[in-house]
Amino acid sequence: MLRQLFQRMTLKESPSVYEDKDAHLPRVLTVKDFLALGVGTIVSTTIFTLPGVVAANHAGPAVALSCLLAAIVAGLVAFAYAEMAAAMPFAGSAYSWINVVFGEVFGWIAGWALLAEYFIAVAFVASGLSANFRGLLTTFGLSLPKSLSNPMGTDGGVVDLVAVGVIVIVAVILSRGVTEAARVENVLVVLKVIAILAFVGIGLTKLHWANYVPFIPSFHLNPNGTAFGGWRGIYAGVSMIFLAYIGFDSIAANSAEAKDPEKTMPRGIIGSLIIAVTLFMAVSLVLVGMFHYSHYANVADPVGWALRHAGFTGAATVIEAVAVVGMFTALIGMMMAGSRLLYSFGRDGMLPRFLGRLTVDKGLPNHALGVLAVIGVVIGAFFPFQFLAQLISAGTLIAFMFVSLGIYRLRPREGQDIADPAFKMPFYPVMPALAFIGALIVFLGLDIQAKLYSGGWFLIGLVVYLAYGIRHSTLSAKD
């Protein structure tokens, strides 16, 4: 009985089936669109906050090393993603790929882990945008009442109205088509990059070299028991910074809508990560050079704080305003990717099939988009979710480990039942193992709460699969 159940759970989907199912999705996205999507998702609100937080709490001036090491791990995984996306340009990214190379239950686990990322990330970005927008209003003497500014039960809040509004606006933009969304994304990403470069350029005129010494502070434990200084502090910083780099999964989730995916996907995934790490390291080095890293403790907006305290009040206001607008890019990327993942679950019968239906006129997964928007509104507008933030990293790292190991199953099938892609992960078979080990090390660096929540989410997913997915999936009809 158990053997039969395991055999059923490990049935693999044929790649040709996914090609047929996704054929109605319009292939309109170019390298430029994917670079904007990737940079817009990776270089989100985190670049204006995390470098200062990590410097003050964990790494000191060596925050740039935390950024670099996190990028190296993400880069190793990105090579695996690039080969998978080039060989199998299907909607759903890791879920669909793992379903093909390992089997249905493993694909579901990877996809379910990513679903946590998108549900929480949509709410996280929307609420972050709301907080920064309300902060910007205060500089003009304006404010919203607490009842419309905070989630229910938090500081007198009833609903975060701005978070609701931005999710609805992005959902409407995406429902009109990915071409329209890509145009908005491209413009906003350019504005955001200009704002970041402006900060770096201004900050370079106010550097104090003494702030970089010692570059790696001596190790000690913070009052809350976390590590500061030394390589342990840098490692703690890696686990936090890594949260920013996981956005390249949003590119892969849209690979079914890519023009010439064999070239477009690798260039979009790897190129966006290179641009992102360059910007992160530049911002980190300038921040700790302008002021001693200890000044950024408990500062929610270190970039704006540094500019204001250096005498550039006008520049701080303009850059923070552009940053708020630029946060739309991360929301567009997350909602595009999350809706494609939900669509792929409905497409395969793992969740109700209406999620897998496309609009008749434009062939868009708007049912899945609507459900994602509603869930994002509920989480972001009505419930405090800060304690779940690290679940974004935990869920994605699980999927990253699956994809890295999946290269070993993919290679023997390339040129057989799976297309032989123009791009392949270099230094095979060593690099896939390094990518897996790197993702595992970062996962182990997350706090115990994040690991427990990811374990709970995994158990819920297993129950959903056994109670619904295994009986309704398209593979059940073939079994």
List the helices and strands and how they pair.
Elements: H1 2-9, H2 15-21, H3 31-42, H4 50-59, H5 63-87, H6 94-101, H7 104-138, H8 161-175, H9 178-203, E1 220-221, E2 227-228, H10 230-245, H11 249-252, H12 261-290, H13 302-309, H14 313-347, H15 366-382, H16 391-410, H17 430-444, H18 448-472, H19 474-478
Antiparallel strand pairs: 1-2
Helix pairs in contact: 3-9, 3-12, 3-14, 4-5, 4-10, 5-10, 5-12, 5-16, 5-17, 6-7, 6-16, 7-8, 7-14, 7-15, 7-16, 7-18, 8-14, 8-15, 9-12, 9-14, 13-14, 14-15, 16-17, 16-18
Concise summary:
The protein has helices at residues 2-9, 15-21, 31-42, 50-59, 63-87, 94-101, 104-138, 161-175, 178-203, 230-245, 249-252, 261-290, 302-309, 313-347, 366-382, 391-410, 430-444, 448-472, 474-478, and strands spanning 220-221, 227-228.
What does this structure look like?
The protein is an all-alpha fold. It has a single domain, classed as Up-down Bundle (Amino acid/polyamine transporter I), CATH 1.20.1740. Helix content is 67%, strand content 1%. The chain has a two-stranded antiparallel sheet with strand order 1-2. β1 and β2 form a beta hairpin. The longest helix is centred in the first third of the chain and has 35 residues.
